[in-house]
Amino acid sequence: MTSQPDGNSAQLKPTISAEKISLTPPKGTYDLLPGETELWQELEDCARRVFSSGGYREIRLPIFEHTELFKRGVGETTDIVNKEMYSFSDKSDRSLTLRPEGTAGVVRAYLNGGLHRWSPPVKLWYAGPMFRYESIKTGRQRQFHQIGLEAFGSAGPLIDAEVILLAVQFLESAGVTNLDLQINSIGCADCRPAYRQELKAHLEPHLPNLCADCRQRFERNPLRMLDCKIAADQAYYQAVPVSIDYLCPVCQSHWHGLKSILSAQGTKFKVNPRLVRGLDYYSRTVFEVVTSSPKLGVESTICAGGRYDGLLEVLGGKQTPAVGWALGVERLVLLLDRTVIRLPLVFIVSSNQIEALKLAVELRKAGISCELDFPATGSEPRKLTKQLEQANKSGALWAVIQGDEELAADELTLKDMRSREQKRLSRQQSLQFLTALEPPNNCDEQREKPVK
Questions:
Q1: Which CATH number fits domain 37-191+247-339: 3.10.450.50, 3.40.50.720, 1.10.3720.10, 3.30.930.10?
Q2: How does pLDDT run across 227-237, given as a tens digit for each residue?
């Protein structure tokens, strides 16, 4: 006879959903796993070092903002606003948007946080995830990450040159090679209308042959037609009038000043007269840092930016000169093509688990990276020989052996895992020796090994 469960046991039985849960992340998103995250941390640390050396301070922004910020700041004629934003209504029926780029949010924080009252120039940098609903390409995802830099309050070409040079310095410090700098000037509100008219007059006969997006941009923002990524359309843009031929005297002075400053620094650059940026807020200087690496396919731009002197006024502030750039971290990681494994300096081999953990805490407080043995089964420590095998697998440079004899004498045996030599020291001497090997809170280069 089969016994029946009582009411209480039936209530404890978990409910199993018939619908299978997908363990894959949503399209256009991904997981950063150990080995990858360490490389990202390296890049962020590199950015912090390079930018802080130039007086740029980090700013951290909300992941979502009011939708109107991006409509007005990025521009309603852009693909970002028209096609790519992740917008939603909250419970109070307010329209919010996951940030598709960083500059508009930095400007909002600059105005809202009172940074506009600081002595100019105000120099800021940021890093974090952005969101755009677009097709997945090499190094481009729907949740992607940017590192960006912005400077407010200086109108001259000197600050343009500084932000450009910091971009190049950061990329070179991160390990990127084969970089080319391309620059252009798209003028200002005074001289751009004449150029727009010349550009439209040149392109109007070709409109029937251009894509739908370009035909739409023709009336609202013809400069953005030059940013079209369709190869067939690009053929019509090779002989268009160029913006640098229509610059007003002020923009022309700014343009020549930028080139002179970059040349004086020994910085090689190429003037690309068809270079424009895809967002509406740019004026005067625009630039891109491109790479010839085949790892990015035809998408060769790694960093891009320029001047946006009118954006703060559009968003409710006073007219303020500003310049900045952003780069995609995913694309940067593809160029580096490596992961990083951080190895411990020390592996503790002990006959007493409680004492092993106590020693680990003491070493870690001293800034010494260490691991200890955690047996998969059972509650007793494994044999010292087995623990030494695990120490070897961990990649640690030193095994700190804490057997019964060492525990009784308050000593430790330090074994060099490369030479296999070992020495027995007092606990205090051992700590002094290990601390000298690895400075507190500073990861020795030997502890980071790139894995191709």
A1: 3.30.930.10
A2: 787 888 888 88
